[in-house]
Amino acid sequence: MHKIKLVLFPWLHKPWARRTRRTEHGQHEWQPPRDDINSPDLYIPAMAIVTYILLTGLHAGLSGPGFRPQILGESASRATLVVLFDFLFVKLGCYILNIQGSSQFVDIFAYSGYKFVGVIFAIAAGFVGIGGALWTVVFVYAFLANAFFLPIPTVSPLRSLRSVVLPDPSNSISSSSGATTTATVNPAQRRRRITFLFLEAVSQIVYMAALVRLPTA
């Protein structure tokens, strides 16, 4: 529940720096999600995606001619495509900008899935009778919360996807070979990465808009 609150109300949370711990070999690694709320987890994104698929079926059953099994498949395909496009966009940006990290795959997949929490929030608002301009306000809020939670670089604290693209030198993590996953970022690289983070944040409204367009029977 604390992580869901963080996703929906990110402006109430601080600090955003991820915690590290020392292993028995004297190296540092990120603390797991159960010990650090700022650490990305796969449980909430996975459950949010499943909940989204089930909600689309419920929506079809409550409106229109009725439920049909194909709707679940269509919703699952839409969710998969959104996560895949978002993941590939971030990975492509990381490749072009030469951003390296040992846990990028899990982290990026988790960040791609957190948007479904906001989508569910908007869909649930429609279920309770909120519509028209008020529902638009709810959707815009969900988008802004997700964009703030991810990477918008106008706020200085280290947070979420920003920790992958703009690593904090004070939080360098040692690998088994003794190398660190955090490298110094020069001003030119930092500007390019901030631009990339901004594009990733803005793109969330496209993904979320596609997800809230629920199929009908």
From TrEMBL:
Main site of residence? endoplasmic reticulum
The UniProt record lists the keyword Transmembrane helix: yes
Q: Does the keyword rRNA-binding apply?
A: no
Main role?
Answer: Has a role in transport between endoplasmic reticulum and Golgi.
The membrane topology term of the UniProt record is: Multi-pass membrane protein
Tell me the InterPro entries matching this sequence.
Yif1_fam
Q: What are the GO BP annotations of this UniProt entry?
A: endoplasmic reticulum to Golgi vesicle-mediated transport; protein transport
Q: Which organism is it from?
A: Candolleomyces eurysporus
Family of this protein: Belongs to the YIF1 family.
**Chain segments annotated as transmembrane:** 42-67, 79-99, 119-152, 194-214
Q: Name one GO cellular component term.
A: endoplasmic reticulum membrane
Q: Could you tell me where this protein is found in the cell?
A: Endoplasmic reticulum membrane; Golgi apparatus membrane
Its recorded name reads Protein YIF1
